[in-house]
Amino acid sequence: MKKLLVVIDMQNDFIDGALGTKEAEAIVDNVVAKIQEYPKDCIYATRDTHTADYLETQEGKFLPVVHCVEGTKGWEINEKVAKALEGAVIVNKGTFGSAELADMLYFETIGQDEVEIELIGLCTDICVVSNAILIKTKLPEAKVTVDPSCCAGVTPESHNAALQTMKMCQCVVE
């Protein structure tokens, strides 16, 4: 069985920066502990990546809060998490979900009889759910799991709604 971990957007701006929440701050140690359970060659992480013209983009018009601009402190992965991720594959993404990540996981798991892909990170209700659905679409027979103790949403209510959505799309929430 091939078991992979995907760590979504554990960046400063989502933890204690422009879009940070106390719930995001509270999961950092859980995320580090989860990362330490996996071999480094079985870990992928994403980094939300925007440019200086973010407010001119469609996303910027819907969410007019500048965040995760490449090269800024807010774009960087949280220091504790970054240390745990040393040696992992990091994928920069310009939008909620990463088709590139789904493709990488597909090619990583070709020929495997059983595949489990666990997702953790931020934000449950935007980027975690988007990537879970993309991965499940690309690898329909993979067991896609989400650990809610290692995720946080924009609000606790939207976090719970996203977990329900992922369950409905045949992801395992445990």
From TrEMBL:
<dbReference type="GO" id="GO:0008936">
    <property type="term" value="F:nicotinamidase activity"/>
</dbReference>
<comment type="pathway">
    <text>Cofactor biosynthesis; nicotinate biosynthesis; nicotinate from nicotinamide: step 1/1.</text>
</comment>
<keyword id="KW-0662">Pyridine nucleotide biosynthesis</keyword>
<dbReference type="InterPro" id="IPR052347">
    <property type="entry name" value="Isochorismatase_Nicotinamidase"/>
</dbReference>
<comment type="similarity">
    <text>Belongs to the isochorismatase family.</text>
</comment>
<protein>
    <recommendedName>
        <fullName>nicotinamidase</fullName>
        <ecNumber>3.5.1.19</ecNumber>
    </recommendedName>
</protein>
<dbReference type="InterPro" id="IPR000868">
    <property type="entry name" value="Isochorismatase-like_dom"/>
</dbReference>
<keyword id="KW-0378">Hydrolase</keyword>
<feature type="domain" description="Isochorismatase-like">
    <location>
        <begin position="4"/>
        <end position="170"/>
    </location>
</feature>
<dbReference type="GO" id="GO:0046872">
    <property type="term" value="F:metal ion binding"/>
</dbReference>
<dbReference type="InterPro" id="IPR036380">
    <property type="entry name" value="Isochorismatase-like_sf"/>
</dbReference>
<keyword id="KW-0479">Metal-binding</keyword>
<dbReference type="Pfam" id="PF00857">
    <property type="entry name" value="Isochorismatase"/>
</dbReference>
<dbReference type="GO" id="GO:0019363">
    <property type="term" value="P:pyridine nucleotide biosynthetic process"/>
</dbReference>
